[in-house]
Design goal:
Strand order of the largest sheet: 1-2-3-4-5
Strand content: 25-35%
Structural class: alpha+beta
Shape: flat
Radius of gyration: 27 Å
Length: 260
């Protein structure tokens, strides 16, 4: 009658314990693997500052970001950029008023962004006038990952970091050499001085490297852009970057920068 004591007792004590352990492991694993909800709550709220006076005009549009870890940091950087640009035109307006000038200092800005998966690239576009024959305009870009909070420098986009980015630098240099008359004689040297950490933004499936006014060409040449399709850089891009942007459509940036 007592030939099978183990088989009648163990299932009643071990099985519930195993189920509890498996349930606990499943719960812990689920918490570790679940993506952070920050990417799903990403939001951009447009804000603006508009002021007009005898010697000063300000019409600034800018984004307020929320829903991810780096939002506060980026918002602060944008606010600081606007404050610095504003201080410059306010100083110019003071001089114009003192001289009873017929000119008016001004600051304008706009912005665009693309979101491809968890990769967001946003670029602020500024222009100002502080006197003289013409104003200035420039771009301030921000590219980041919603899920990880990573801010991407140019070399961060690539499998081998700076070594891969150097290949893009070589491609830019070759394009300059194709039409050297369009650039300063020092343009190639200037490219090298960046040490591959170029200013850029991601517009759809294109990575746009750009150089500000007076950097590699005269004012009349404007900001110089070098656009690279994701397919063109597929072999050197990090897989998560390539997969995120490869099928995205670029958005038009026409009319977003005023040239004086």
């Amino acid at each position: 009658m007592n030939q099978h004591p183990v088989k009648t007792n163990k299932p009643r004590t071990v099985l519930p314990c195993l189920l509890m352990v498996l349930l606990l492991l499943a719960t812990l694993t689920g918490c570790a693997d679940d993506p952070k909800p920050i990417s799903t709550s990403f939001a951009v709220e447009g804000q603006s500052i508009k002021e007009s006076a005898d010697y000063l005009e300000i019409n600034v549009s800018f984004p307020f970001l929320s829903g991810f870890d780096a939002a506060e940091e980026i918002n602060r950087e944008i606010e600081e950029s606007i404050a610095a640009a504003r201080a410059e035109v306010e100083d110019a307006a003071s001089y114009m008023e003192a001289d009873e000038s017929k000119l008016k200092a001004g600051l304008h800005s706009n912005y665009l962004y693309t979101k491809n998966g968890d990769i967001v690239s946003l670029w602020m576009m500024f222009d100002n006038y502080t006197g003289g024959a013409h104003g200035l305009y420039w771009i301030e870009p921000y590219t980041f990952n919603l899920a990880t909070g990573e801010r991407y420098e140019f070399s961060d986009l690539f499998l081998e970091g700076k070594a891969s980015a150097l290949l893009v630098s070589d491609m830019i240099t070759e394009k300059i050499k194709e039409n050297p008359e369009l650039y300063f004689e020092s343009a190639v040297e200037t490219i090298g001085n960046y040490e591959t950490e170029f200013q850029y933004y991601i517009n759809g499936n294109q990575i746009s490297v750009f150089f500000p006014l007076y950097d590699i060409t005269a004012y009349a040449g404007g900001i110089q852009f070098f656009d690279f399709d994701a397919e063109e850089l597929k072999s050197i891009l990090k897989p998560e970057i390539y997969e995120a942007i490869k099928d995205a459509a670029p958005i038009s940036a026409e009319g977003t920068i005023s040239e004086h």
